[in-house]
């Protein structure tokens, strides 16, 4: 979809949200204008809930 939109002159963004090894740049070799590391602080029961959900999804 991003390629189709870009071909029509629309601006697109590529977000590689792989926590362990962001490497989409190896596959697509995009022209990077800017990079930015982002994060999200989670604490308490919300964090534990998200960890449990992730573990059960990949078990």
Q: Could you explain how this protein is built, in words?
A:
- The protein is an all-alpha fold.
- It has a domain of 34 residues.
- Helices cover 42% and strands 0% of the residues.
- The mean pLDDT is 75.
Write the layout of secondary structure elements.
Blueprint: H1 2-7, H2 24-28, H3 44-57
| Order of helix and strand elements from N to C terminus | HHH
Mean pLDDT score? 75
Span of the ends, CA to CA: 30 Å
What is the share of helical residues? 40-55%
- What is the tally of helical segments? 3
Q: What is the 3D shape?
A: elongated
Oligomer: single chain
Low-confidence stretches: none
Instruction: Give the percentage of residues in beta strands.
Output: under 5%
Radius of gyration based on Cα positions? 16 Å
Coarse structural class: mainly alpha
What is the number of beta strands? 0
Biggest β-sheet strands, sense, barrel: none
Q: What is the structure about, briefly put?
A:
The protein is an all-alpha fold. It is built from three helices and no strands.
Any descriptors?
mainly alpha, single chain, 59 residues
């Amino acid at each position: 979809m991003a390629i189709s939109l870009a071909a029509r002159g629309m601006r697109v963004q590529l977000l590689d949200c792989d926590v362990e090894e962001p490497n989409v740049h190896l596959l697509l070799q995009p022209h990077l204008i800017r990079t930015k590391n982002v994060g999200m602080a989670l604490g308490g029961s919300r964090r534990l809930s998200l960890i449990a959900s992730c573990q059960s999804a990949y078990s």
